């Protein structure tokens, strides 16, 4: 069997009943985090624009637009909810994979709602789709990223396609067709990072994954072995499967997609980092370190001569913008992020409001922040989480006007597997994201439902509860 067939068989033919308590807990964490962000993101300008386009398009009203009262078709709902989930740049990140939850959660919710699936059936499909996303990502990254692709819409869409195929009761061949259709649909270029384009990549990947499954269910036929190219074709069409087309001929590791497939699910391998700060994931440890130093020493802006951030090449490459020209670039601007971390002793949604970004006091303080990549951190380049590579490795030095220096080495942030966030930590983030949309009673109700998501007989119970009510 080729790679595509092995992954499709794994997703479709794995018997149900494999979700252990640990796997269920891991899945719940990802749904809890993503749903809260989705509610907030639904009212972000990018989320509202996606909503308006959905209204113009219309569609079979079978799926909920989370955070709104509208209903539409599953592909369009997946798109709008996916855009909302990534609009705030606040969702989780899985090492060696990327932002997997932000694609899989909206995709699985939309299909489960249309299919009337139970919470447990959806979590099983999610776990298997998460694994397929992980496997394809490991085989294509880091070269996929280095070639200029923003990967998650490409690899995450494959996970959505197989998860949808499973929930829709499709067979292995149909799932292979869905993967083939999805391979011709994925996209996302890195130059759009730092704009609404990044959220579009996610929504587009969700929409395409669902649409691919629906087309395959109707009998639409494409190449059944889409991931792997064929050497027999020379430079003909057969050569260019998904791996060769996106990464360049031979610039990938197909064996990582199937090696020991099914032995241990990625969902159970504690590799996902919950972001407790919006923005680029890589500087999370440095943000925590700077806030801690500031609080411990009760520092004021007038005390500081300079803040030096020593970070990894990947941290600087992922957050490269020198100025916070808008909310999107501010989240990928290290001088801005470190400035508000010091000034506000917090980096949450409020720190990326238009008012805070335009504040002259922040811009004045940014001049005191210096970002460098020292020689001894340059080896942290490549696949995050592979071979000891840690993009978050950083050092903070605060030079005070009295000549004193305060230093802290940082390697992990709260929310990382090494410093896990508790359910209460997650609930505080959920409240931050939803309190402007839901009443406190609705917040508590939806938190309780998510905590029991594996016991819901029909996912429509949860999606109905995620529609705002009159306050």
Task: Describe the protein.
The protein has 471 residues and is α+β, with helices and mostly antiparallel strands. It folds into two domains: 3-273, 2-methylcitrate dehydratase PrpD (Orthogonal Bundle), CATH 1.10.4100; 284-410, 2-methylcitrate dehydratase PrpD (60s Ribosomal Protein L30, Chain: A). 50% of the residues lie in helices and 7% in strands. Strand 1 and strand 2 form a beta hairpin. It is globular and about 75 Å long. The termini are far apart. 54% of the residues are buried.
What labels describe this entry?
2-methylcitrate dehydratase PrpD; 2 domains; 471 residues; alpha+beta; globular; 8 strands; 21 helices; 60s Ribosomal Protein L30, Chain: A; single chain
Give the CATH class of the largest domain. Answer: Mainly Alpha
- List the secondary-structure elements in sequence, H or E: HHHEEHEHHHHHHHHEHEHHHHHEEEHHH
Q: Based on CA inertia axes, which overall geometry fits?
A: globular
Count of distinct structural domains: 2
């Amino acid at each position: 069997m080729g790679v595509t067939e092995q992954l499709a068989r794994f997703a479709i033919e794995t018997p149900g009943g494999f979700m252990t308590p640990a796997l269920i807990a891991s899945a719940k964490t990802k749904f809890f985090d993503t749903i809260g962000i989705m509610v907030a993101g639904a009212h972000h300008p990018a989320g509202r624009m996606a909503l308006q386009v959905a209204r113009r398009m219309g569609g079979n009203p079978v799926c909920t637009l989370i955070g709104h009262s509208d209903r539409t078709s599953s592909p369009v709902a997946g798109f709008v909810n996916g855009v909302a989930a990534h609009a705030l740049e606040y969702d989780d990140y899985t090492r060696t994979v990327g932002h997997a939850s932000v694609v899989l959660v909206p995709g699985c919710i939309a299909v489960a709602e249309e299919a009337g699936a139970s919470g447990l059936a959806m979590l099983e499909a999610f776990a298997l789709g998460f694994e397929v996303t992980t496997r394809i990502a490991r085989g294509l990254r880091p070269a996929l990223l280095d070639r200029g692709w923003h990967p998650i819409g490409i690899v995450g869409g494959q996970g959505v396609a197989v998860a949808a195929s499973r929930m829709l009761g499709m067979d292995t061949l149909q799932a292979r067709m869905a993967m083939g259709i999805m391979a011709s649909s994925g996209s996302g270029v890195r130059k759009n990072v730092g704009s609404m384009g990044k959220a579009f990549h996610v929504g587009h990947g969700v929409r395409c994954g669902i649409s691919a499954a629906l087309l395959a269910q109707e009998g639409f036929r494409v190449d059944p072995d889409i991931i792997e190219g064929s050497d027999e074709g020379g430079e003909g069409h057969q050569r260019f499967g998904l791996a060769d087309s996106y990464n360049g001929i031979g610039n990938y590791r197909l064996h990582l997609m199937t090696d020991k497939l099914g032995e241990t699910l990625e969902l159970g391998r504690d590799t996902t980092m919950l972001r407790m700060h919006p923005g680029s994931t890589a500087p999370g440890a440095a943000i925590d370190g700077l806030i801690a130093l500031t609080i411990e020493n009760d520092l004021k802006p007038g005390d500081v001569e300079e803040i030096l951030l020593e970070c990894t090449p990947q941290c600087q490459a992922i957050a490269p913008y020198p100025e916070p020209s808008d909310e999107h670039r501010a989240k990928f601007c290290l001088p801005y992020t470190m400035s508000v971390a010091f000034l506000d002793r917090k980096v949450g949604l409020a720190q990326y409001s238009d008012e805070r970004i335009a504040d002259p006091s922040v811009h004045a303080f940014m001049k005191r922040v210096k970002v460098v990549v020292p020689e001894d951190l340059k080896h942290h380049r490549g696949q995050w989480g592979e071979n000891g590579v840690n993009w978050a490795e950083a050092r903070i030095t605060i030079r005070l006007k009295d000549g004193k220096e305060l230093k802290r080495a940082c390697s992990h942030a709260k929310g990382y597997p090494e410093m896990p966030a508790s359910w209460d930590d997650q609930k505080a983030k959920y409240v931050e994201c939803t309190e402007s949309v839901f009443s406190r009673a609705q917040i508590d109700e939806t938190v309780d439902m998510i905590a029991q998501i594996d016991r819901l007989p029909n996912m429509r119970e949860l999606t109905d509860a995620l529609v705002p009510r009159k306050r």
